[in-house]
User: What shape does this take?
Amino acid sequence: MSERVFNFSSGPAVLPLPVLEQAQRDLLALPGVGMSVLEISHRSKPFDEILATTDANLRKLLGIPENYRVLFFQGGAALQFSMIPMNLLRDSGRTAEYLVTGSWGKKAKQEAALEGPVRAVWDGADTAYNRLPRPDELKLSPDAAYLHVTSNETIQGVQMSTDPRQAGVAPPADVPLICDSSSDILSRTVPIADYGMVYACAQKNAGPAGVTAVIIRDDLVQRSPKSLPGILSYQAFAENDSRYNTPCVFGIYIVMLVTRWLLEEVGGLEKMAAQNAAKARLLYDVLDASDGFYRGHAEPSCRSLMNVTFRLPSDDLEKRFLKAAEAQQLFQLKGHRSVGGIRASIYNAMPREGVERLAAVMRDFQKQSG
Ligand code: PMP
Assistant: This one.
């Protein structure tokens, strides 16, 4: 494995090495089964066990209460942008509220607008999504169908507190809070009971592309309109234990291995969160000590611990920086095409050593170019 480089991709992203090694060891035959996980029926006993273990691991890690279901979908987080309003806005006679803190929140709102009435309770476009609203800037209505937030904006590198009161997004009673947690799920603890639904595509912190986890309160599952096709209905997926049709068997198996790694090797989400905070600090310290050579995109109070976004003084320097990083085996650091610059995604599975090396490259590069 010596040729593995440090992979700062925003997703699909680096996976824990022990997970990849176990998947490789067991690829030809699952222990005690004699068939590959790629070859077993989604209604077989081995897959029953994989699904049940993944559910149990997620419940343990996130402290998911009993009155919530854990469902697995294909179609990515983007499918949820449409399923949420189809299931929870359609026929409700209400308006859905969206907090638009970056590109993904914006996309979620645009897709929902195709289904029914939506309203932005705040939109950070004016400042290129570099900050979060102060609680006094938000006016939440008491009769919205739901309030949708994005806990971590992957492209801009802006992250909010998981505590809705602290973030100022605790909606009035009866308005479910829905969170797109695609790029920070499992990176820290979350008070799930404060949310009606938390969802995340797996390909950043939880597994490979192709599987999306939806953690949803029982009463919301019951709201799916009967007119919805089953493949788009939370209720149909809940009734069929995520097997309305063939699920992403391999993806769910990898999520099982990742959650096991978090429980058994990392020691839970508090420990994971401490490691993530320490890794992020290594990079933000370099930014702050650089006299403006590195300019962080996000305001310091809402800096993401997952996606560290910054610019250099010129496009040319950014190109040269990426080359210097690659020479040190640090890859996929280019910022999203819509914002440019540099983005270091430092999810759970990014080893501290990779972040230390990036911090060293940043310091050296500034010395040579400054
Ligand atoms: N939401 C967030 C916060 C994301 O980071 C992404 C993917 N980068 C998405 C939604 C869309 O996910 P998918 O490509 O799985 O549909």
